[in-house]
Design brief:
The chain is of the alpha+beta class and 426 residues long. The protein folds into 2 domains: 154 residues, no CATH class; 232 residues, no CATH class. Helix content is 15%, strand content 40%. It contains 6 helices and 20 strands. The chain has a 16-stranded antiparallel sheet that branches. It has a two-stranded antiparallel sheet with strand order 11-12. A two-stranded antiparallel sheet has the order 19-20. A hairpin with a 3-residue loop joins strand 6 and strand 7. The chain is globular.
Length: 426
């Protein structure tokens, strides 16, 4: 067998595994998939609130506005057909009258040459993905993927200069956007990613979900409220829909790995987020608030504070009543369909803002902390189907997502020492 034929067959096999992996009920936050979802929602001319991006296919299926009609769309959900081609075939599939279960392998491999390293960079990922749907209102998906990666110089420089000082004694490092990893042979890292989700939709008005993964708020390439930049994290999500309103409550558990310890253990922190969306076919408005608190410090162990189970929007007054120094933030999301094939969007995040001192001193007060996003998206550029463009600008004041002084920065808006928003603001 010739080398080129072998490469062609191996590449096709990897593509088959990767495509099957994308058949998850939880719509992937991959930008290509999300961009296609944006196009489909646009074509449906619907009033679905798109400001919460980590959606489950059942949410959209119950609204009956999107139909899987081609290969690209098959990445959004399972197909119950027993027979099919690359678009519908899973490695293992069990189909019944009330549900479907699938199991697929995942394989991805690549090699590259760095201009600053003598050796070839090798990357290999392998694992599996399983998923199931029952009665069209319960879904489950879980994936385990083990990785071996050798990164180019500019990624290595981030890993070694930024994270090496966190815990240099046990040979553990944090991979940007990923999990903590173990170093091998000076430039090879091994780590395993876990991802799972359980979703129950008793009707199109309610949703209950939980899992270990990522969530994304907003319509931009980046998010200034909550993005998919950091590692996976445990979460519970509640959603209610009524009229033109969509309300999400999100409970998260984050970790200050390696650098904030009490009694020799890294301390978790918790977050409660409320996100209310109002939408018409042209206009969408989102109102956001969140509070983050540390589970345990050197003086007191709080765990999950029951005060913050409060499901109501704008819980800052509740945060004041407990007399705590917890980190709170509010935000706004906007999207407007300005013409047939495009929309403008934006975000505003506010933490500390002292307008009085800014006016008195006739200049920006150093303690003001806010972030602003402006963007535009357009489909079918030059009348080419599915060709789209996006222009986006993000501006963030220094230390907007920071909280604390000196070494006491355990309440920073981070997880695994990585920003929960734009990767460039940390």
């Amino acid at each position: 067998m010739g080398i080129f034929k072998f490469i062609k067959i191996f590449s096709l096999a990897a593509l088959l595994f990767a495509c099957n992996y994308l058949h998850a009920q939880q719509v992937p936050l991959n930008q290509f998939v999300q961009n296609r979802l944006t196009q489909l929602l646009f074509e449906a001319d619907s009033s679905v609130f798109t400001g919460f991006r980590a959606q489950n296919w059942l949410e959209l299926q119950q609204l009956n506005i999107i139909h899987k009609t081609n290969f690209e769309d098959s990445g959004f959900g399972l197909n119950k057909a027993v027979k099919g081609d690359i678009e519908t075939t899973n490695y293992i599939r069990a189909v019944g009258n009330k549900g479907v279960f699938t199991l697929d392998p995942y394989l991805d491999a690549g090699i590259a040459q760095s201009n600053k390293q003598d050796n070839i960079n090798k990357n290999l990922s392998a694992g599996f993905n399983m998923q199931a749907v029952l009665n069209d209102n319960f879904s489950f998906n879980a994936a385990v993927i083990t990785n071996y990666n050798q990164f180019p110089d500019y990624v290595d420089s981030v890993i070694f200069t930024k994270y090496d000082r966190l815990n240099p004694t046990n040979n553990r490092y944090i991979i940007p956007g990923e999990n903590s990893a173990k170093l091998h042979d000076k430039n090879g890292f091994t780590y395993t990613n876990f991802n799972f989700n359980l979703t129950y939709t008793p009707s199109k008005y309610f949703l209950i979900a939980g899992g270990y993964g990522k969530n994304f708020l907003g319509d931009g390439y980046r998010s200034l409220l909550l993005s998919d930049n950091s590692n996976n994290a445990p979460y519970v999500r509640l959603q209610a829909r009524l009229w033109k309103l969509t309300y999400n409550v999100l409970y998260n558990r984050y970790t200050n790995n390696f650098w904030y310890e009490v009694d020799g253990k890294a301390q978790p922190k918790y977050s409660t987020m409320h996100y209310l969306g109002f939408n018409t076919k042209k206009l969408q408005i989102g109102l956001f608030d969140e509070v983050t608190w540390i589970a345990k410090d050197t003086n007191f162990s709080r765990g999950f504070d029951l005060q913050y189970l409060n499901p109501l929007l704008f819980i800052r007054p509740s945060e004041f009543t407990v007399g705590s120094p917890d980190n709170a933030m509010i935000g706004f999301n906007l999207k407007y369909k300005i013409y047939k094939k495009g929309f403008i969007y934006g975000q505003l995040a506010l933490d500390d803002l002292n307008l009085g001192k800014s006016f008195d001193e006739h200049k920006q007060f150093y303690g003001n902390k806010y972030a602003l996003q402006l963007g535009i998206w357009n489909k079918d550029v030059f009348n080419v189907p599915n060709l789209s463009y996006r222009f986006e600008w993000n501006g963030v004041r220094p230390y907007t997502y920071g909280h604390g002084v000196g070494d006491n920065i355990s309440l920073n808006y981070t997880h695994y020492y990585q920003s929960l928003t734009d990767p460039f603001v940390q």
